[in-house]
């Protein structure tokens, strides 16, 4: 009887341990970009979690999204990107696909990649444009990050178009 009891305890312990070490469920986020806000404004993710952000520009103006820390200022004193880009710091690039009407756009045309802001950016020129960004959260991303839109020489950011991404172990 003692062996059966011990076996049940060990089995339950191994089951609990295996549940703790499994990868978190994928996270799917529907994000709208408008004048001048992201919805949602807060994203919470865990290390090992695959994150897919489906973005749509519901505003009339061009909007972009960048993830980083410590906002940089441009020559004219306007917000102009982040000193530390989340994806570059983690030594990875997100996978980005663009929606209908943007098939001709690619990384070489400035839709995503490094540019004057100094980090990875996804830009959508106008109303109804969409894109999907997918990445797996790494340990290098643990902490609090900001995402923001720096379009029109930083005026979108100044008008409140930024949010927070919190990454936990």
Order of helices and strands: HEEEEEEHEEEEEHE
Using only C-alpha atoms, the radius of gyration works out to: 20 Å
> How helical, in percent, are the residues?
10-25%
**Proportion of beta-strand residues:** 35-45%
The largest sheet, given as strand count, sense and whether it forms a barrel, is: 7 strands, mixed
Average pLDDT works out at 85
Structure description:
The protein is of the alpha+beta class. It has three helices and twelve strands, in the order αββββββαβββββαβ. The protein has helices at residues 2-21, 86-89, 155-158, and strands at residues 27-34, 37-39, 42-46, 50-57, 63-73, 79-85, 95-98, 112-113, 121-124, 130-136, 143-148, 162-168. The radius of gyration is 20 Å and the shape is globular. The model is unreliable at 104-115 (pLDDT under 50).
What's the helix and strand layout?
Elements: H1 2-21, E1 27-34, E2 37-39, E3 42-46, E4 50-57, E5 63-73, E6 79-85, H2 86-89, E7 95-98, E8 112-113, E9 121-124, E10 130-136, E11 143-148, H3 155-158, E12 162-168
Parallel strand pairs: 1-4, 3-12
Antiparallel strand pairs: 1-2, 4-10, 5-6, 5-9, 5-11, 7-10, 8-9, 11-12
């Amino acid at each position: 009887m003692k062996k059966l009891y011990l076996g049940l305890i060990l089995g339950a312990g191994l089951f609990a341990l295996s549940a703790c070490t499994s990868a978190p469920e994928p996270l799917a986020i529907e994000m709208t970009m408008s004048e001048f806000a992201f919805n949602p404004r807060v994203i919470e993710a865990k290390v090992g979690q695959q994150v897919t952000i489906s973005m749509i520009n519901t505003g009339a103006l061009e909007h972009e999204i960048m993830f980083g820390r410590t906002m940089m200022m441009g020559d004219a004193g306007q917000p102009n990107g982040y000193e530390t880009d989340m994806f570059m710091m983690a030594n990875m690039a997100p996978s980005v696909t663009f929606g209908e009407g943007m098939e001709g756009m690619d990384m070489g045309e400035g839709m995503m990649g490094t540019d004057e802001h100094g980090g990875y950016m996804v830009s959508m020129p106008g109303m109804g444009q969409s894109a999907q960004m997918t990445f797996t959260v790494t340990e290098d991303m643990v902490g609090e990050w900001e995402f923001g839109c720096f379009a029109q020489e930083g005026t979108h950011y100044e008008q409140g178009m930024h949010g927070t991404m919190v990454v936990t172990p």
